Amino acid sequence: MYIDKPGSDKKRPLGIPAHEDKIVQLAINKILKSIYEQDFLDCSFGFRENRSCHDAIKILDVYLSRRNINYVVDADIKGFFDNVDHKWIMKFLEHRIADKNLLRYIGRFLKSGIMDEGKFHKVYDGTPQGGIISPTIANVYLHYALDIWFNNFIKKRCKGQAYIVRYADDFVCCFQYEDEAKAFYEALKNRLSKFNLEVAEDKTKILYFGKDSFEDRKFKRA
């Protein structure tokens, strides 16, 4: 079915699993969470126990108000759930899951296809929004494609402070220096393309935001 997309006249596709699939997905989702909860980084929020959007906002407030942050990259991934690459997610899962039967079940869910107005359509990419297992799949995908890369590569190469806060497929990256924020944005486009993802450039922007920008605006108003 299709639901209204806030702030747009477009519709968002919502995949509703069959009743039997819901039961199996619920069981598999519990297994995945028990495996990956210990792996996910502290920057990851959303669809995790006691890590809500409010918790993400709280830690972002700490970075912006108490750390030396002056530039924010407000990023958006274009059609993330529609473009999750099945080959990549299966490779990611194989890092931690050795049970071939479990992996086969997950693969079947990804490739099960959809019924739209009585017609069956095959799917080759993506994981349906509305599927019980989809949010955990999304977190696993971005854990490897984004979170680890930012913390182990981007952050370590920055001379200034750098932080990321991610809620599901939405994320904000904070930097002390403008040139490092710009360099990250260019690197992000290349990184996401490797995993069949794309930055929504009309929704992604670099903002002068933080302690220095606040003081600058106070000075200009004065």
From TrEMBL:
<dbReference type="InterPro" id="IPR043502">
    <property type="entry name" value="DNA/RNA_pol_sf"/>
</dbReference>
<feature type="domain" description="Reverse transcriptase">
    <location>
        <begin position="1"/>
        <end position="222"/>
    </location>
</feature>
<protein>
    <submittedName>
        <fullName>Group II intron-encoded protein LtrA</fullName>
    </submittedName>
</protein>
<dbReference type="InterPro" id="IPR051083">
    <property type="entry name" value="GrpII_Intron_Splice-Mob/Def"/>
</dbReference>
<dbReference type="InterPro" id="IPR000477">
    <property type="entry name" value="RT_dom"/>
</dbReference>
<dbReference type="Pfam" id="PF00078">
    <property type="entry name" value="RVT_1"/>
</dbReference>
